[in-house]
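Milestone 3.1: sequence recovery, worked example.
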């Protein structure tokens, strides 16, 4: 898909976020999610018929307006449902020297299993630096974790994971485990 003429369905945008990954981030909340995690904080993002369309060129122009950004976050909803349309944006984000964080309700392992029928998953992940994976699980809810809401969710180093063929935890989570082992008991 080309950047021009491609639109995605979004629930909203946070042009300067400090909670959706490390540093200052442009966060895009895509519309549509089928995971139905009990206790989800954003149920209004579930309906695939909801939200509104926005062109990738408009989104990229908004990103370019802020020279202080460290990166872009794709959250939701679940951005993997629009993976194919997001690929051209992810490519442009990386070409501008920004890092890319993806939030998904799928686990890394499940996404990899789906790649044969959904090659766009791998294509999108090839541009990602950090992934927060897995559904929100109310019973494992924890307010003190960095960038995620429940203990099953991991901070995954996507590039290392793709190279090694397995989910590799990101240094941010490794540091967190060392500094706060009580959070992982
Ligand atoms: S994956 Fe995220 S948006 Fe989707 S139901 Fe779970 S917590 Fe909500």
């Amino acid at each position: 898909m080309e950047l021009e003429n491609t639109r995605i369905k979004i629930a909203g945008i946070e042009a300067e976020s400090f909670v959706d990954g490390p540093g200052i981030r442009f966060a895009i909340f895509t519309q549509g999610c089928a995971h139905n995690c009990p206790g989800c904080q954003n149920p209004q993002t579930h309906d695939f018929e909801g939200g509104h369309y926005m062109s990738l060129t408009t989104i990229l122009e908004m990103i370019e307006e802020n020279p202080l950004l460290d990166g872009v976050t794709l959250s939701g909803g679940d951005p993997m449902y629009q993976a194919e349309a997001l690929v051209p944006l992810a490519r442009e984000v990386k070409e501008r020297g920004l890092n890319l964080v993806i939030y998904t309700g799928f686990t890394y392992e499940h996404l990899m299993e789906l790649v044969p029928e959904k090659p766009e998953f791998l294509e999108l992940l090839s541009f990602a630096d950090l992934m927060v994976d897995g559904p929100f699980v109310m019973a494992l809810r924890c307010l003190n974790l960095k960038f995620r809401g429940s203990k099953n969710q991991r901070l995954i180093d996507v590039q290392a994971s793709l190279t090694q063929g397995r989910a590799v935890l990101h240094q941010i989570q490794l540091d967190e485990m060392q500094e706060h082992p009580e959070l992982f008991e």
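The radius of gyration is 16 Å. The longest helix spans residues 83-95.
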